[in-house]
Design brief:
The structure is a single chain. This protein is of the alpha+beta class. It contains 3 helices and 8 strands, in the order βααβββββββα. Strands 1, 2, 3, 4, 5, 6, 7 and 8 form an 8-stranded antiparallel beta sheet that branches. α1 crosses α2.
Amino acid sequence: MAPSGPNTGTTLQIRRIFQAPRQKVFAAWTELQAVEQWMCRDVPSHRVSFPQFNAKAGGGYVIEVTDTKTGAEYIGTGIYREVRPPEKIVFTWRWTLKRAAGGETGLRPETEVTVEFHERGASTEVILTHRGFQTANEYDETNAGWNGCFDVLVNYLATTGRTGETK
């Protein structure tokens, strides 16, 4: 039987430098009005909503994503295990496929995401570590998804002021 749980399987790590102060980058992960602008918005046909979002230790989130082009529907859920401003966030991540492009449905295994924020002068290095993938396909899809989200986050950070308001 294959092992299960957020700390087994394959681990993905992504390092990215953002041209913004650490506090602003951290806020982009913990404030709903910011997260709504970049999370899961890497595909233009995605319609994204956050019916639940509480970025505090013990709080949770629900992300609903509908691909208006393919009709695929996904629900992401998780619990924040640690929120240490402006240094670190740890949360669980699980997708439920209500209706995927290939017709499959079901619950993916729970994984764990750690996001670390390191000050690099006027910039911030983000190290995202996502643990617990059971298949190469899950790993590849998630790698592409996080990198796409990070590309959108770069644009979001560039178009907002120091405290997150739109320029």
